[in-house]
């Protein structure tokens, strides 16, 4: 019953794959080093040249490394960890864990007792190794022609100045700092400045509304909020500071007052003289930060000290504060970045994600910088001024690794190949995808058109909670299958379980769980360890439950099939249906709401809301707009429903539970698959809903 239409679609597409028998022998052939017929239509092989230079260049090499990581995790990970600087080494155990709720409190620790600093490892270590002059960040503004760059040495100085300022205003180890910034260089600078002094950053995506920001501030009670006055996104100017102002006013009403709002003047979007200002509380970044020393001693922290909080959506209304700690996260993001993208020091890397999401934390900021990589940070919108912008940027900076989301691939695919083919893109060598399942046709377009059939695609499956990649191709090792995230990363043991939590072997589909911990795993939900256990470790005792469905084919490839809980994935953004519902019911004319995800051509999933109005209120276009606006204001524009479906009543069981399965079928117009509706308290609501489908 938890299997969604999304899931079925994938199972169907799997069923169309040619029978597995032949493929297995082919894979054996690869392992044995024999040549293969590359016309196998569901296997896409890395070129021999690519494999020859790859960090992991054959299935056999992958197998050996993987085997070691599972059989001897302590040895495997301590070897990797030794590449970093630790003030003191862990002692004596590399890790300890209990992820089995039946055996007591869930607890995961990696490198406990060791002390280190992630900012030191990302910046100072690279400068000391002689890479101070290497570009750390290329910044590309919203408007073509607007750009900047920082070398590792310069980035370190900027970070130190901000660290010193933060210390000066009283921010210390363990204190929370909320960062609400767009993709300026100041965003990674602010993250690193916090981690340098042991402060815990909580970045809030700058597309979230004042209410959502307030909710997050109330939860973690930061000493400082860091923002900027405004940002240009495409043709629009967004007044971020005003959003922060109203969030802070809201928080003050609830008894949480933040004494300092450090505001970066983003001149290209807005002049400071027209920015609304609250003396004493508000301080211009440019007025204070540059006055501080560009050297700042590092705060050494325990490997298990918190690094950051990042709120994400769950199946209830309240966002969850996912907490990551320092040592394991550092080792894991660095290692996954290096292997999944076959990173080499000469690469120029661009990830289109915003630092407001986990992808921006692990794979814009920490993972790449820990590897000493050159990273492109892009402020703007990918189709502004036109749909060729991404490839213009790729050519401008000679980007060699390009990492993005399927929704962008699909939207650019719709805009036409000309926008791509008029740019050279010859610097590209590895492509990456994240955030939602990539459908095979988008995969093929990405591969053939964007990558000129040369660049392997790393379809990386992971989550805010996992910190880093969990199931991902290692380009150069195995042949790929369009739409499959392939195999687990080192140290990761995925299992597929049935409804009862029994592991299923071989070719199968079910719920994706993970056995054992990995260094990048989140350690708790901030302030709510019980919810951590209930959500992730109780559904299938003995395992971490991902919330995703997954199939495994005969060759052992993994096919992620989407969420099996009440979380939907819109353009790669995780949104809880309950959050949207609670925004809708806060509208005075809305009596009840039920939200489901529907397939959407570009966004992957769209938000489809069934709304019951207060008695006597007539349906109107105006009301529809006002409901959508309520969601935009309460959560953010990215959560606006695509469709409001008027509902005189909702299909409920006799015990009052809304049957979402039926709503999903109505939303996706699969009316012949409604199934048994006789258990409903009032089966006639279904016909009423169908009748109102096109209103
Ligand atoms: C989905 C984003 C299929 C999945 C990193 C997961 C994916 C949720 C993939 C986490 C992928 C992410 N293939 N599905 N390559 N990557 N997902 O926390 O449903 O924003 O549970 O982390 O996105 O979303 P989150």
UniProtKB/TrEMBL annotation:
Keyword Ligase: yes
Keyword Magnesium attached: no
Reaction(s) this enzyme catalyzes, per UniProt: acetate + ATP + CoA = acetyl-CoA + AMP + diphosphate; (E)-4-coumarate + ATP + CoA = (E)-4-coumaroyl-CoA + AMP + diphosphate
A Gene Ontology molecular function term of the record: 4-coumarate-CoA ligase activity
EC number assigned by the record: 6.2.1.1
Segments forming domain AMP-binding enzyme C-terminal: 579-657
Short name of any one Pfam family annotated for the protein: ACAS_N
Acetyl-coenzyme A synthetase N-terminal domain ranges (all copies): 63-122
InterPro entries linked to this entry: Ac_CoA_lig, ACAS_N, AMP-bd_C, AMP-bd_C_sf, AMP-binding_CS, AMP-dep_synth/lig_dom, ANL_N_sf
Residues annotated as domain AMP-dependent synthetase/ligase: 129-517
Protein keywords: ATP-binding, Ligase, Nucleotide-binding
GO biological process: acetyl-CoA biosynthetic process from acetate; phenylpropanoid metabolic process
Recorded family membership: Belongs to the ATP-dependent AMP-binding enzyme family.
Protein name per Swiss-Prot or TrEMBL: Acetyl-coenzyme A synthetase
Organism of this sequence: Cocos nucifera
């Amino acid at each position: 019953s938890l299997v969604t239409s999304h899931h079925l679609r994938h199972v169907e597409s799997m069923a169309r794959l040619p029978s597995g028998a032949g493929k297995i022998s082919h894979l054996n052939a690869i392992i044995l080093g024999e040549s293969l017929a590359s016309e196998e239509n569901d296997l896409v092989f890395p070129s021999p040249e690519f494999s020859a230079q790859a960090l992991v260049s054959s299935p056999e090499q992958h197998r050996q490394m993987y085997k070691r990581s599972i059989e001897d995790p302590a040895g495997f990970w301590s070897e990797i960890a030794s590449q970093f600087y630790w003030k003191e080494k862990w002692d004596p155990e590399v890790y300890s864990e209990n992820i089995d709720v039946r055996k007591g409190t869930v607890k995961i620790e990696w490198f406990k007792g060791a002390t280190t600093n992630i900012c030191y490892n990302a910046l100072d270590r690279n400068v000391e190794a002689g890479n101070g002059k290497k570009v750390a960040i290329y910044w590309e503004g919203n408007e073509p022609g607007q750009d900047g760059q920082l070398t590792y040495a310069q980035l370190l100085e900027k970070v130190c100045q901000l660290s010193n300022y933060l210390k000066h205003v009283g921010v210390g180890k363990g204190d929370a700092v909320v960062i609400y910034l767009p993709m300026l260089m100041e965003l990674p600078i602010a993250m690193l400045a916090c981690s340098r002094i042991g402060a815990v950053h909580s970045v809030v995506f700058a597309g979230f509304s004042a209410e959502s920001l307030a909710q997050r501030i109330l939860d973690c009670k930061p000493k400082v909020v860091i923002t900027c006055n405004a940002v240009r996104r495409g043709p629009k100017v967004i007044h971020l500071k005003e959003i922060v102002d109203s969030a802070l006013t809201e928080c003050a009403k609830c008894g949480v007052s933040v004494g300092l709002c450090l505001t970066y003047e983003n001149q290209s979007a807005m002049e400071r003289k027209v920015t609304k200002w609250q003396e004493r509380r508000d301080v211009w970044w440019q007025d204070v930060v540059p006055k501080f020393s560009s050297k700042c001693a590092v705060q050494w922290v325990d490997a298990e000290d918190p690094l950051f909080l990042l709120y994400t959506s769950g199946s209830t209304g309240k966002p969850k504060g996912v907490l990551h700690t320092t040592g394991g996260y550092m080792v894991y993001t660095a290692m996954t970045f290096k292997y999944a993208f076959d990173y080499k020091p000469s690469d120029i890397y661009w990830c289109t994600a915003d630092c407001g999401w986990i992808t921006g934390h692990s794979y814009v900021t920490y993972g790449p910088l820990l590897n000493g990589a050159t990273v492109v940070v892009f402020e703007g919108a990918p189709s502004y001024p036109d749909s060729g912008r991404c490839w213009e940027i790729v050519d401008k900076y000679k980007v060699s690794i390009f990492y993005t989301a399927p929704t962008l691939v699909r939207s650019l695919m719709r805009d036409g190949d000309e926008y791509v083919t008029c740019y050279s893109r010859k610097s590209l060598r590895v492509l990456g995808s994240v955030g939602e399942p990539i459908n095979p046709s988008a995969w093929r377009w990405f591969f053939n058109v964007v990558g000129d059939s040369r660049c392997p695609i790393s379809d990386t499956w992971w989550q805010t909670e996992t910190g880093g990649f969990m199931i991902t191709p290692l380009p150069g090792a195995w042949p790929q299958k369009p739409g499959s995230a392939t195999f687990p990363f080192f140290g990761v043991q995925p299992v597929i379980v049935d409804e009862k939590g029994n592991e299923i072997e071989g070719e199968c589909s079910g719920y994706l769980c993970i056995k054992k911990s990995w260094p990048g795993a989140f350690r708790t939900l901030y302030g709510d360890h019980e919810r951590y256990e209930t959500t992730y470790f109780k559904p299938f005792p003995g395992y971490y439950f991902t919330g995703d469905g997954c199939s495994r084919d005969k060759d052992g490839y993994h096919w992620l099939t989407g969420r099996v809980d009440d979380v939907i994935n819109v353009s790669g953004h995780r949104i809880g249906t309950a959050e949207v519902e609670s925004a809708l019911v806060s509208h005075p004319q809305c009596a009840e709401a039920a939200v489901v995800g529907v397939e959407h051509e570009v966004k992957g999933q769209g938000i489809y809301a069934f709304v019951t109005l207060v008695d006597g209120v007539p349906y109107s276009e105006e009301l529809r707009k006002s409901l959508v606006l309520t969601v935009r204001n309460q959560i953010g524009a990215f959560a606006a429903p695509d469709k409001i479906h008027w509902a005189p009543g909702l299909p409920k069981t006799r015990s009052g539970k809304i049957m979402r399965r039926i709503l999903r079928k109505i939303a996706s117009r699969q009316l012949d698959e409604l199934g048994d509706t006789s258990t409903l308290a009032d089966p006639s609501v279904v016909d009423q809903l169908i009748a109102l489908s096109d209103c």
